[in-house]
Amino acid sequence: MDLKIVFCGTPQFAVPTLERLATVGFHIELVVTQPDRPRGRGMGMSFSPIKLSALKMGLRVEQPEKIRNNETFRRGLQEISPEAIVVVGYGKLIPKWMLEMPPLGNINLHASLLPKYRGAAPIQWAIAKGESITGNTTMLLDEGLDTGGILMQQQESISESDTSLTLAPRLAAAGAELIVQTLRGLEGQTIKPQPQDESFASLAPILKKEDGRIDFKLSAQTIHDRLRGFQPWPGAFTTFRGKTLNILSAKPENSGSQLTCGEIVVQGDALRAGCGKNSMLTVLESQFAGKRSITAREFINGYKPKPGELLGN
Question: 95 by DSSP, 3-state: which?
Fold first, then answer.
């Protein structure tokens, strides 16, 4: 277990892998992460989760702004002469010279069962698309977008109550162990990369604010899946009386509804809206921009929606 490793990563999802590699005895010669960025209201400089973790473990950290044509960075890696480079959510494309450097290659942990959900947001889109199974894939990076040869995979169930906030930590923990198994397999020459089947490929593009806008022409189940997947951002939002309304919690009702899409109906303490495929979305908790979150009962009492009023109009 004396492989020399360079680790490239940035988000919280990558932290369990870095910590696991360190605890099982790999030699992490360098941790590469994104430069510090201003965040928050005060716009103070913020360290990435990987930088914080690496510094706690006393690991050397570098944060190059660019890597493709960075000769200083390139010479530094050549001096280290890593046997493998591990990449988990780094956030930059790995250049060809870096792909070709280590004898065991650049090993990436991707949070989907490739070739499904290639791209920046696989966890969010797997939930948003209503999947019941997802998982992790380790692969050898190439110059494409998550197109490299598959090394190992493991599955993870998605429950009906899962959001991206609950699923991501499970995948991160399982993925950390999968990386360890993959490195051992590569070192022992017991695994070889297998090509991806392009006929099953799908994309999980980076999320945009507009992805959170509710389209009530979709079924209530689809809207609910998107709400679960797009946590914490961009969430799920619509408009009511000209103001932005964030839907924080809801449940689908496949009840043979005859409501117009987006039409509100009050049934006792329940606040429901018509959706596509004759379904309804029961709104449990919502929040107007700049206001506190409110229950359905508070919404009904406070805003007294009229028959025929619409969400999203």
Answer: coil
3-class secondary structure, 121: coil
* Euclidean distance between CA atoms 247 and 187, whole angstroms: 49
Say how far apart CA 67 and CA 81 lie, in whole Å.
17
- Which element (helix H / strand E) includes 137? strand 133-140
Q: Are 230 and 213 in contact (CB under 8 A)?
A: no
Q: For residue range 258-273, what is the model confidence (pLDDT) as tens digits?
A: 999 999 999 999 999 9
CA separation for the pair 77, 65 (Å, rounded): 16
Map residue 99 onto helix, strand or coil: helix
pTM comes to: 0.95
The string of DSSP codes covering 243-304 is EEEEEEEEEEE-S---PPTTBEEEETTEEEEEEBTTEEEEEEEEEETTS--EEHHHHHHHH-
- Does an H or E element contain 128, and which? helix 122-128
